[in-house]
Amino acid sequence: MKLSLLSAALLGAAGATAQLKQITDYGPAIKSAARMFVYEPAGLPERPAVLVGVHYCTGTAQKYYNGSPYKGLADQKKFVVVYPESPNEGGCWDVSSRATLKRDGGSDSNAIANMVRHAVDKYQADPKRVFLIGESSGGMMASILAAAYPELFNAVINYSGVAAGCFFTDSVAGWNGTCSGGRIDQSAAWWAQWVYDAYPGFNGTRPRMQIWHGSVDATIAPANYNYSVAQWTTVYGYPSTPILEKADTPERGYTTQVFGDRFTGVYAQGVGHGVPVHGSEDMVFFGL
Ligand SMILES: *[C@@H]1O[C@H](CO)[C@@H](O)[C@H](O)[C@H]1NC(C)=O
Ligand SMILES: *[C@@H]1O[C@H](CO)[C@@H](O)[C@H](O)[C@H]1NC(C)=O
Ligand SMILES: *[C@@H]1O[C@H](CO)[C@@H](O)[C@H](O)[C@H]1NC(C)=O
Ligand SMILES: *[C@@H]1O[C@H](CO)[C@@H](O)[C@H](O)[C@H]1NC(C)=O
Predict the structure, then answer these.
(1) For labelling alongside 241, which of 29, 74, 117, 137 has CA 20 to 30 A away?
(2) Which residues does ligand 2 sit against, CB inside 6 Å?
(3) Residue of 213, 226, 229, 233 to test ligand 3 pocket, by largest number of atoms within 8 Å of CB
(4) Beta-sheet pairing, 80-85 with 50-54
(5) Taking 90 as the threshold, does the pLDDT of residue 74 lie above it?
(6) Rounded distance, CA 195 to CA 143, Å?
(7) What is the pLDDT of residues 210-263, one digit of tens each?
(8) Is 29-286 in CATH node 3.40.50.880?
(9) Protein residue with least CA distance to atom 9, ligand 1
(10) In angstroms, what is the span from residue 234 Cα to ligand 2's centroid?
(11) Using N-to-C axis directions, what is the helix angle for 188-198 and 137-148, rounded to 10°?
């Protein structure tokens, strides 16, 4: 009896981990050895949507799969989730090297772009419904991907990240304390230039974007919210101050700031690093 309960528990655990699958041959070999995992819910429709979920430092694909609501939402709404996994010690993404800040530069951003292309092809997904979400280090990666691969994503959400280029140190494992401390004094045009330089000459439609940041974030100082606002309002050609501000939205203490139809910020009063994931709001923003 005890034994069969134990083996049932073991089987259950094995069954749960088997749901997240690794895909080893997702693209051409490049310098980054980032790993690709996917979750494919039962009953996928034709031309499904794809959500790419990029984990935080110390994260893995499995931890993000277990700890975020996207698997459950994928079961309900029937989309594929791609969980990239960092190849770097400490589980942070390369968000600081020159190579990762450029399109097709061979580092982690390039690897994730290759995963997205592979997933769209493998699942015959709808290329107009590919969405990206990232948290912390993954949020920083989300802004880089939006800058360097704008054509791959319909919409991007980043939780507690930084503006593209803010973490630049010209090394893979760099931690840029000037950025995280919120001590970069630069113009909006300077911030926007990082986006233009990530993919020079791009003139298509950029993804819709939403950023979230906590007002008492001690890891990535709140000034980073302003850097991102400066960066993306310039790129989109929006005014630098909100055209619409909604207090206590989506919850008490959070202010939603609309800068234009493609760029929204959510500033969370009294919230620290790692703004809690708001899975159902994310689905509304993506239209899933
Ligand atoms: C940190 O990032 C800023 C902005 O890109 C850059 O000017 C600065 O040199 C970086 N700091 C280090 C230590 O690389
Ligand atoms: C946009 O870029 C493409 C490819 O570089 C180019 O062929 C096209 O003329 C550009 N369109 C505009 C409006 O600049
Ligand atoms: C961000 O910008 C707002 C509006 O301009 C300003 O009130 C606020 O002090 C800035 N925050 C930081 C941390 O610089
Ligand atoms: C990520 O968040 C930062 C601010 O925290 C912002 O500058 C950047 O534009 C965001 N990127 C994306 C793709 O949402």
Answers:
(1) 137
(2) 201, 203
(3) 226
(4) parallel
(5) yes
(6) 9
(7) 999 999 999 999 999 999 999 999 999 999 999 999 999 999 999 999 999 999
(8) no
(9) 169
(10) 20
(11) 70
pLDDT above 90 coverage of the chain, percent: 80
Alpha carbon distances (Å) from 46 to 38, 39, 84, 286: 17, 16, 23, 18
Q: How many angstroms separate the CA atoms of 6 and 22, rounded?
A: 27
Domain coordinates in residue numbering, the chain: 29-286
The whole model's pTM is what? Answer: 0.86
Query: Which ligand is closest in space to the CA of residue 194?
Result: 1
Residue 53 confidence (pLDDT): 96
Nearest to 71 by CA among 31, 94, 38: 38
Residue 158 in this model has a pLDDT that exceeds 80: no
**How many Å lie between the centroid of ligand 3 and the Cα of residue 131?**
29
Q: How far is CA 31 from the centre of its chain?
A: 21
45-54, 135-144, 154-163: which has the highest mean pLDDT?
45-54
Q: Is 136 among the catalytic positions?
A: yes
Inter-residue contact 22 to 35 (CB < 8 Å): yes
Give the H or E element holding residue 63. Answer: helix 61-67
Catalytic residue, from 32, 86, 136, 143: name it: 136
Taking 90 as the threshold, does the pLDDT of residue 10 lie above it? Answer: no
Which of these, 149, 151, 16, 23, lies nearest to 83 by C-alpha position?
Answer: 23
**Rounded Cα distance, 96 and 77, in Å:** 35
The pLDDT, as a whole number, for residue 277 is 86
Give DSSP secondary structure letters for 10-31.
Answer: HHHHHHHHHTEEEES--SS--S
